[in-house]
Design goal:
It catalyses: 3-phosphoshikimate + phosphoenolpyruvate = 5-O-(1-carboxyvinyl)-3-phosphoshikimate + phosphate. By secondary structure, this protein is an alpha/beta fold. It contains twelve helices and 22 strands. β10 and β11 form a beta hairpin. α1 packs parallel to α5. The protein is globular. The protein binds shikimate-3-phosphate and phosphoenolpyruvate.
């Protein structure tokens, strides 16, 4: 499905939008619920990634295809490795079969797991024969993906000796590790994170309780971008959000202040308002703690005609696609002067935007959603627009609520 997008006829935007639960929190809680069945989950994400996570947790033998879901692949690997008597094959999309998992597999093997590669060494598909793992100390590189660390932490309280992780190298995507520890804390798991050592204590049972997933801040980023590109006075209420979030992408509220968008926390919502504040002369950010915001931010800057330099992007090359190359190609088609390295991106101030360009999305939900706000500046076509379902299946419906003009072509 390719969609032709134009901006709303009414220039001042106003809408209320309910966003589905965070996919990161949901996939962690789904795993914790499998380990502690007394847990219940409210506002669980309706994303494909949460759906495949549930499906994976429901099997005890045979193959499960987790498509493009990085967290599901990594979290289920740790789960099945520690489930005695279960024997499964975890596979995924063509891209998933290129996304590295060796760091996690090696750490689990050090703990006694039985995991083998079925195609390419270091990547899915993998065969896992579940064993009783006892836990203890293990070291692993921390500069490739935090998901390996979260995967180990999530199963840690179920291991007899708990876990002591030594993180080697610069730790990337730290807020996601803290989110994992924050959720463990909510169910009563003892832990510490000092320097490069994380310790998790064992826990046998939890008392029955319901954990409420906050809505997804990465999904909120597209509305921040829309507001940044809209007329002063435009306002959007998003729910359900909390002022004290476990999600690192809640840094959006600060980042977009510089781009003219104010955030007010009201009960369970955030109210975003576009102000008439003057823009800075350039944006320069290190996004190693919020890698999923890179695409949104660079497209906003392009639409605003602002130069921007983003660093800390070393994880982008191994996500749903090589996001640095994808951004360079697609912004380039729109007329941007953009250059990338393997960990940074530089965009020069745009003076014009090419019209009716088709934006390829590379099986990456964030390519589709990050480019959509540009319809406020020029008509554009988003190819394979259904990719959004990986994290935000209702994205196009919600854009329609904002009166964007959307036509299937
Ligand atoms: O743990 C998580 O839920 C995630 C961690 C991040 O990945 P990396 O740690 O690989 O950067 C992030 O990009 C991804 O969307 C979700
Ligand atoms: C990188 C992402 O997801 P994952 O790694 O879980 O596939 C994402 O949602 O931007």
């Amino acid at each position: 499905m390719n969609l032709y997008l134009s901006g709303p006829a009414e220039k001042v935007l106003k809408s209320d939008i309910e966003i589905t639960g965070s996919k990161s929190e949901s996939n962690r809680l789904l795993l914790l619920q499998a380990l502690y069945p007394d847990l219940s989950i409210d506002n669980c994400s309706n994303s494909d990634d949460a759906r495949v996570m549930k499906k994976g947790l429901g099997i005890s033998s045979g193959e499960v295809d987790i498509h493009h879901a990085g967290t599901a692949m990594r979290f289920l690997t740790a789960y099945f490795a520690s489930q005695q008597g279960k024997e499964v094959v975890l596979t995924g999309s063509k891209r998933m079969q290129e996304r590295p998992i060796e760091v996690l597999v090696e750490a689990l093997k050090d703990l006694g797991a039985d995991i083998s590669y079925l195609k390419t060494s270091g990547c899915p598909p993998i065969k896992i024969k579940g064993k009783r793992l006892y836990g203890g100390k293990v070291s692993l590189p921390a500069n490739i993906s935090s998901q390996y660390i979260s995967a180990l932490l999530l199963v840690a309280p179920r291991l007899e000796r708990g876990l002591e992780l030594e993180l080697i190298g610069t730790i990337t995507s730290i807020p996601y590790i803290k989110m994992t520890l924050g959720l463990l804390e909510q169910i009563g798991v003892g832990h510490s994170f000092e320097g490069n050592i994380i310790k998790v204590a064992p826990l046998d049972t939890v008392s029955p309780r319901t954990l409420v997933v906050e809505s997804d801040w990465s999904s909120a980023s597209y509305f921040y971008s829309i507001l940044a590109l809209s007329e002063a006075g435009s306002t959007i209420r998003l729910s359900a959000y909390r002022e004290h979030s476990l999600q690192g992408d809640s840094i959006l509220a600060d980042l977009y202040k510089a781009l003219g968008v104010d955030t007010q926390f009201q009960e369970n919502s955030i109210v975003l308002t576009k102000t008439s504040r003057p823009l800075p002369s350039k944006i320069d950010l290190d996004l190693s703690n919020a890698p999923d915001l890179a695409q949104t931010l660079v497209v906003t800057c392009f639409g605003l005609g602002l130069p921007c330099h983003l660093s800390g992007l070393h994880t982008l090359k191994i996500k749903e696609t090589d996001r640095l190359e994808a951004l360079k190609n697609e912004l380039g088609k729109l007329g941007a002067d953009i250059s990338v390295t393997d960990k940074s991106l530089r965009l020069e101030a745009a003076t014009s935007i090419n019209k009716a360009v088709s934006i390829a999305t590379y099986n990456d939900h964030r390519m589709a959603m990050a480019f959509a706000p540009l319809a406020l500046r020029t008509d554009l076509i988003i190819d394979d627009a259904e990719v959004v379902s990986k994290s935000y299946p209702d994205f196009w419906k919600d854009l329609d609520r904002l009166a964007f003009q959307i036509k299937e072509v």
